[in-house]
Amino acid sequence: MRNFIIFFEEKEGTSPLVRLLDHFDQISMVHQIKNRGWEPFDRHNCGPIQTSTLLQCFDLIFDKNPLSFDRLNEIYATQAVAPLESLNKRGSVGFKMRFLPPNPAAFLWFKLMEPLSKALGQTGFSRSFERSIIQKSQANDLTVFLAARQDVFRWALSKYHGDGTGKPGHLQFAIADGNLSRDQIGKIYVDPGRFERIIQACERSHAEKRRLLRTFQAAGVRAYPLLYEEFVLDKVAYFERLLRQLEIKIPRSEVEATLGMGSHFKKVHSSEISEFVENHEEITERFGHRYVKWEEPA
Fold this sequence. Notes:
It is built from 13 helices and 5 strands. It is α/β, with parallel strands linked by helices and 298 residues long. It has one domain (4-287): Rossmann fold (3-Layer(aba) Sandwich), CATH 3.40.50. A 5-stranded parallel sheet has the order 2-3-1-4-5, sandwiched between helices. The radius of gyration is 20 Å and the shape is globular. The model has no long low-confidence stretch (mean pLDDT 86).
């Protein structure tokens, strides 16, 4: 069985994904106590820790030595909003995180230098965080997944819709906690100019994920895409493939039974865009064709 990291951005189905993975007896998903903090190494959970501290936590979680959980939480909980829940290191261990340094200074450097390095045709001085993550993945023989959403039109709509008013936010948590029902989500007007910019950002993100996947693979790290559309289409087949990539062998009946335990989350948006977008005809006509198919290299 293999240990792993799922890198994600947002609105790619990873919240229900990690809850479902945690139901499997063979898998321990790293998260905080009280069933919270399922992105344990994102800044809003772990605090502004240095990259060196982040990598130290990675080693304690993923290396071949017995887990010193007290030591892990001693390091992690120094700035985190809550300590980590206990985990079983004997099986497959994983977590999800954004591919961003949690420390604000490192984050600002990352965001500042990346476009500058591209403009100058250089990469060495802008990707120290990337190199550190790849080296740590190599050292611990990790499997890396990158969450991706091919239908950038729908992905951009989810981002635009945000909290249900067109502002940044996440409706799925309010719905899951029973504080909101899908029937209570009103329609919004989608500004075409702003929406075009969001779609372009999604397309750039998609291209960057492809580059990052190739970089991991070139470094000898097992790396795979996790496609949202496949998750929605056939969850059993999706998880069977993911489990094979983690070298976990269980019968289909066990996969089906485990998925039947549920993920805590419910689908936010209807497949009918007209139910949450006022100018749905205009938006669909102008942007509905925006789709970036993920094709494996020959």
